[in-house]
Amino acid sequence: MRATTVFNRLLDLDGVSVRDVDLDDPRKVVVTVALRRRRLACPLCDFTTRAAYEADRRVLSRWRHLDLAGRTLEVVAKLRRLVCPTHKVRVEAVPFARHRSEFTRDFDCLVAWLATKMDKTAIGRLVRVDWATLARRHLTPSGLVLYDLSGSWMEGRTCPLAGHGYSRDGRRGKAQICYGLVTDADDRPVAVNVFGDR
Ligand SMILES: [Zn+2]
Fold first, then answer.
1. Å from CA of 66 to ligand 1 middle
2. pTM for this structure?
3. Which residue pairs from 134-138 have beta carbons closer than 8 angstroms and sit at least 24 positions apart in sequence?
4. What is the DSSP string of the chain?
5. What tens digit of pLDDT does each residue of 2-42 get?
6. Which residues contact 165 (CB under 8 A, 6 or more apart)?
7. 39 alpha carbon to ligand 1 midpoint, in Å?
8. Residue 103 · residue 63 · CB < 8 Å
9. Which residues surround ligand 1, an ion (CB under 5 A)?
10. pLDDT one-digit tens code per residue, 69-86
11. Fewest beta carbons within 10 Å, which of 39, 84, 103, 180?
12. Residues 6+ apart with CB under 8 A from 174
């Protein structure tokens, strides 16, 4: 079986085909993908078009995906640009990552799930994400920050972060845990905190 076929099945990323796999660097795997859809989609609204802007000049984009056998997995694609009537010239959206995120949705979801299980210092070490660097890169003084607090119920009695309190899921009688997520104005997660029950 060809390496590209193996990685197509292994990654199972939405809407893309694997074109090349580079294993030369012992610390990382670089997978080049191409979007399957013909139409270009604006990353900020529902607008789609068949017309690419300066079609011969593509934008090289990279995302960090879930690690593979101890190596960092990087997804690379050369994206087209389009002209949206509202948002002007934009790099087309990809189905597997949020707009301007450096991580795939799978990676974002892993971090969000971990945030419900462990503190952010442990997450940072485990997935090698530096929260302070992320925040410095994506947040500007007096800029817009979006913050959401959520929670979940859990089984067991020994987690020091869980406690009894208001259940957003309506699961009264179960231990609760609260977590907050900070994103920049484009919904990129830049910080996560687990507060325990409040
Ligand atoms: Zn748009």
1. 29
2. 0.68
3. 134/190, 134/191, 135/182, 135/190, 135/191, 138/184, 138/188, 138/190
4. --HHHHHHHHH--TTEEEEEEE--STTEEEEEEEES-SSEE-SSSS-EESPPBTTT--EEEEEEEEEETTEEEEEEEEE-EEEETTTEEEEPP-TTS-TT-SB-HHHHHHHHHHHTTS-HHHHHHHHT--HHHHHHHH--TT--EEEEEEEEEES-S--TT-BS---TTS-TTSEEEEEEEEEETT--EEEEEEEE--
5. 888 888 888 888 889 999 999 999 999 999 999 999 999 99
6. 176, 197, 198
7. 14
8. yes
9. 42, 44-45, 47, 84, 86-87
10. 889 999 999 999 999 999
11. 39
12. 153, 154, 155, 167
Distance 184 CA to ligand 1 centre (A): 18
Cα(179) to centroid of ligand 1, in Å?
31
Dist. CA 45 → ligand 1 center (Å): 4
